[in-house]
Design a protein that fits this description.
The longest helix is centred in the last third of the chain and has 16 residues. By secondary structure, the protein is an alpha/beta fold. It has 12 helices and 9 strands. A 9-stranded mixed beta sheet has the order 3-2-1-4-5-6-9-7-8, sandwiched between helices. Helix 1 links the parallel strand 1 and strand 2. It is globular, with a radius of gyration of 18 Å. The two termini are about 30 Å apart. The chain has one domain: Alpha-Beta Complex (Inosine-uridine Nucleoside N-ribohydrolase, Chain A). It binds alpha-D-ribofuranose and calcium ion. Calcium ion binds next to helix 1.
Length: about 325
């Protein structure tokens, strides 16, 4: 793999998402970064039902002037049991009530797990996977087709938290809350997992004046991103809206912007009050009692970011003129 040039990335990515408002900003951003080739977008049940996720994803790809990248419908329910969606945050349509024009795009006639498998199998160089929804599709993929893991260079997961508790309940972040079994499988069996948790998810904001610049821009992708961010700000009563999932994507493209360390990590599945909680062991190895279970998989935890540089790359991507299709 070529050494990543900070200014000129060169990588192939797959996005697995549950297109709600912040996943939509992620997609608009992804297709505005030269050198990033999105091989596929796979949809999963999460923020809203998977059919609404597919509809949102297709419409956002139009606004992003994305090429004919394959989109597939994935798992419609979590692995073990139904759990609440996040429509209370993202609105009933998942996009904060923003209505997108009808699109001629359609999902491919493949399940998302099959699109993931065929895309990874055919990849001619290592692929970066960015997962910003519940991990149901990826858990099924790694369980049914473990051989594809050798084609993955890194998985950046928006999910969990290392030290700041939950958002869907006191201990669980939504993507892990929605499908804890899937999160446990992916963190245990996924290759080179990076955890972009609430520790950073909640800290990266977009200043109101930059949101306004997007809203007032001539590019449809910029305007839609600005309107989505405006809605996200209103939802949480924040002058400067939290960037959300897009931060995970930007870290996947420019990992040098993140301060990270590796920790044994797992996901609680049985706690009455902690089901879906990411459990990050932050103790130093030399401090461990002899009875410690060291079988948990090592996960690279993102603790902080060069936020100004990240925001700069975000705005460059969203404001970049796009060749209208
Ligand atoms: O907890 C944050 C995650 O859940 C993000 O992926 C966002 O889309 C929300 O639904
Ligand atoms: Ca999401």
């Amino acid at each position: 793999m070529p050494i990543q040039d900070q200014e000129h990335p060169d990588l192939d990515v797959i996005i697995d998402c549950d297109t709600g408002t912040d996943d939509a900003v992620e997609l608009l951003t992804a297709f505005g970064i030269p050198g990033v080739r999105v091989l596929a977008v796979t949809c999963v049940d999460g923020n809203v039902g998977v059919d609404a996720v597919v509809r949102n994803t297709l419409g956002v790809l139009d606004a992003a002037d994305a090429p004919d990248v394959p989109v597939a419908r994935g798992c419609p329910v979590p692995l073990a049991q139904p759990t609440p969606d996040a429509s209370w945050v993202h609105g009933d349509n998942g996009l904060g009530g923003i209505a997108l024009p009808e699109t001629s795009r359609a999902a491919v006639p493949l399940h998302a797990v099959e699109l993931l498998r065929t895309t990874l199998t055919a990849a001619d160089r290592p692929v970066t996977v960015v997962a910003t929804g519940p991990l149901t599709n990826l858990a099924v993929l790694f369980t049914c087709y473990p051989e594809v893991k050798e084609k993955i260079e890194r998985i950046v997961v928006m999910g969990g938290s290392a030290a700041v508790g939950g958002n869907s309940d006191a201990t669980a972040e939504f993507n892990f809350f929605h499908d804890p079994e899937a999160a446990e499988i992916v963190l245990r069996t996924g290759p080179n997992v990076w955890l972009y948790g609430l520790d950073v998810f909640n800290s990266v904001t977009v200043p109101a004046e930059q949101v306004r610049k997007l809203v007032e821009h001539t590019e449809p992708a910029a305007r839609l991103a600005g309107n989505l961010l405006t809605g996200m700000g209103k939802t949480w009563n924040r002058v400067d809206p939290v960037l959300g999932d897009t931060g995970a994507f930007l870290v996947a493209v420019w990992p040098e912007l993140a301060q990270v360390s590796a920790h044994r990590t797992t996901v609680e599945l049985h706690g009455a009050y902690t089901r879906g909680m990411s459990v990050v062991d932050r103790r130093a190895d030399e401090d461990l009692p002899p009875y410690t279970d060291t079988s948990w998989s090592a996960v690279t935890v993102v603790w902080s970011l060069d936020e100004d540089a990240l925001r700069g790359r975000l705005m460059d991507a969203l404001l970049r003129p796009r060749a209208r299709r």
